[in-house]
Amino acid sequence: MTLFNYKNILVCVDGEQFSYDTFNQACTFALEQDAKLYITTIVDPKPYASMVRFDSKIMQRVEQRASESLQAYKQSAEEKGIADAETILEVGTPKVRITRHIVPDYNIDLIMAGETRGRKPERVMTGSISKGIAKRATCDVILVKSSGEMVAKV
């Protein structure tokens, strides 16, 4: 039983297996709280910038795959009994788009994200996306470790 009463929960997902664990925990929270569940993927265009010169439609395909993935997550949420689920697909820097745009635009009061994302060299250069979200967020944040342990920033 949680002490907080969340109304709008945002879960950050991508194509990694780790996202499904975080997603499942977010669904449980949404059901317990009778909250609206927002499922988001932010497509970061930086990794594709050099490829655009050779394939001008690569971003369209990446966004299409992300959209299809989000719809699968939404369907899964509905199958778990969540009637009020919405998907959000945006392009940009994930920690910025989430904290500066999605949180205020959708009145998010809890963000759930997987703690480790990306390959180790990327994390060294850019920092963990989820830790960046936790640092910048104006709402509560729960980071889900790969072990399933939850670390809260309230």
From TrEMBL:
Domain UspA: 6-145
Protein name from the UniProt record: Universal stress protein
Stated family: Belongs to the universal stress protein A family.
Organism per entry: Salicibibacter kimchii
SUPFAM superfamilies, per the entry: Adenine nucleotide alpha hydrolases-like (SSF52402)
Protein origin, superkingdom: Bacteria
